[in-house]
Amino acid sequence: MSQTVDRPPKTDKPPLPTFLTPAPASRRVRPAQPRTAPWQPTKPEASRRPSLISEEVEEMLDERQAARLPLRRAFVLSPFLRLRICAFVVTLFAAAIIVQLFTLQVQDRYQAKERAARDRVYESELPASRGLIRDANGLVLASNIWVYNVYAAPSGLTASQSERIALKLSPLLATVPPDKLKAAVTSKKTKDPEYNLVAAAIDNDTAEKIKAMSLPGIVLEPKPRRMYPNITLMGPLLGFTNYENQGAYGIEGRYNKELRGVPGTRMAEHDRDGNPIVLGQIQLKPTIEGSDLSLTLDSSIQYMVEREVKKGMELYQAEKGMAIVADPQTGAILAWASFPNYDPNEFYKTDPALLKDPLVSDVYEPGSTFKILTAAIGIDTGTITPDTNAGNLPGCVIKYGRTICNFDKVGYPNQTPVKTLERSSNVGAMWIAERYGPDKYYDYIKRFGIGSQTGIDLSGEGEGILRTNKDKGWGPTDFLTNAFGQSVAVTPLQLVQAVSAVANGGKLMRPYVVSKVSRNGQTVSETKPTLVRQVISPESAKTTTNMLVNAVRQGETRLADVKGYRVAGKTGTTTLYDSALTIGSTIAYAPADNPRFIVLVRYDKTKTTPWGSNTAAPVVKTITENLLAYYSIPPTEAVEVKPKP
Amino acid sequence: MELPMRERRRGSGKKSALDTSESSSRVQAAANRLTVRVGGIRLAWRFILVAVLVALASIIWLSQTSTLVSMGYEIENMQKQKVVLNRQAELLQSQIAQYENPRRIEDEARSKLGMVPAKNSVYVKVPPAQAQAAQETQTNPDLTGPVTVWWRELVEMLPRSFRAGPNTTDNSK
User: Which of A80, A124, A307, B129 sits most deeply, having the most CB atoms within 10 A of its CB?
Assistant: First the structure.
């Protein structure tokens, strides 16, 4: 029998004989099994499984195990130790999780909260649509359409995909060069996400076709855009909206605040697809849509006026042509034309010099049309009557060392104020002005609104240039030349306003272009005719009108006469300081006794003839005829109809 | 201590009284047990009832929440559709405005209908009574009446609803 021990012998010391070291009974081991490796731990009997292999094989295996044992023994860990290690690892892992949780929940809680909120809760803008602009008959002059910007996000696309996309887009985006298109849809392998603009402001049909193709990496961004369906009609008056859809110039600029509306906002919790979650927090600031504007202008009149002015401009080879048609009773503007004009749809192609509206911003010497005011002041002050005899007035006079002449340098015997207007006599106008003097003259001229803004609801209005006897640098010749419309500068609108006061019985009315501001069919504000002041008495106005009717029928303005109607008017021509060319104009209103409209036509630098009586007057006549027919105003006087042969 | 529960001895008064008290205490105990049991059953029923109510309330709440969420998505979809339709409406409005352009109308009138600007307007003095009658007839002009070619072409250009006069009925579909 041999004793079994748990450790190997230290040396090749032979085991002690059993008779020398008798073991106590309690420690006495069972009879030893035959083993080749006596130090190997013995398994308890009960835990041993019955071996299915023969003892020889077991022995052989044990021998082999014994041969390897010294090496393996160093790595053998007790189950308890292994359990401890596992527990340690799990604890370490749990600690790491706890630390991470602490970092996220406590240390970085604000950042994490903010990041989560930013991804989930954000504010989105609810755009307000820009209001429409309509004419007096409800015709839309400015509307909105949606255009699309095409963007490519090629970061996830392969080269072959990019090529295919470029091939598919190429026929639809004909304006984009193929190489540029291909470059836009091909990834440049940058770290930042790429969004390349492929095409800007494409129309709705093309966008729908691109959408239908469902191309990967192609995104369409809708953008509102202003559209002016009548193209150049009223272009300078309407103005335009810039790339940010903000109004600039004209009505768009002046009424930008009303037209643009107020965009709303929605602060809401969103789902993965960007849809707001109904049960989440929603803060809604409702959108206020832009207001619609109704103008006093009539598209039919506007079109006719533009057509006639343009025709005259070509006929007389004028550099510029412009016209205003207004209702003298109310101050409402009916037509507003100036050439050269521009298409507000393509404002970016326009010469910046054309953007400023000359009818309200540019000033000019009104010439003989100003004699209307000189005569009206004379009548109202009582210093003259239509038939006051001025005696024989020469064609030229020398005043304060300056020679001042009539346009034809011809004098007339027994000249009266009526004859002065008929012949458009400068000397006669000076004679009238001298009767009441500069104090009264400038007082009246100011009351007529000369030298100050009319107050029209358009931006960029000029004040004109008026130097009175109380201003520095004024001289007596200024007063005399002012009488026939020189040394004074007015805007076309100022002249229309002043002459309208003569036409309507002496009332100076504030001109306006917007009659109504409405939103969703409800009227927000309405413009009523505004009386600025009574300038002259109705009687004086009537007398002056009669003088002007005479000037049209028998005078220089006769080319503006319309048979069967009483038309009151006056022409004017002024020579430019920097050129031998002239500015010719004619202003007239009809029917003279109860005027429905007033027309001013002006041509700058005409080449065929310098005189306003030959250029502007015939155009005024055509416009007047058309307006009388348009308003169905019957003639007041019999017209001799020549029988057809 | 064990009491003889089942056996009864006859002829002993004391024992009989004892039996009676024992019996009543047993009944009491049984009654107590029954009460406890009934109380337990009631409690269980109450618990079940509460649970069922809570479950029902939860189902109703969930159902309402689900309906609300799905309606929220529906509203969102409808709002998106509204935006698309508004855009289409704006586009159509712009197209109408383009068709109403005076220049286009004049071109159409000249080229298609051969119209020319009126040169001579003739105004006829009409007695007031006759003028009133004329105004009344002109309020609803019968557009189907004229037979000239250019007028027929003009009428055909108008939408169907404008073609019929006030006294005619369009039965075509």
Answer: A307
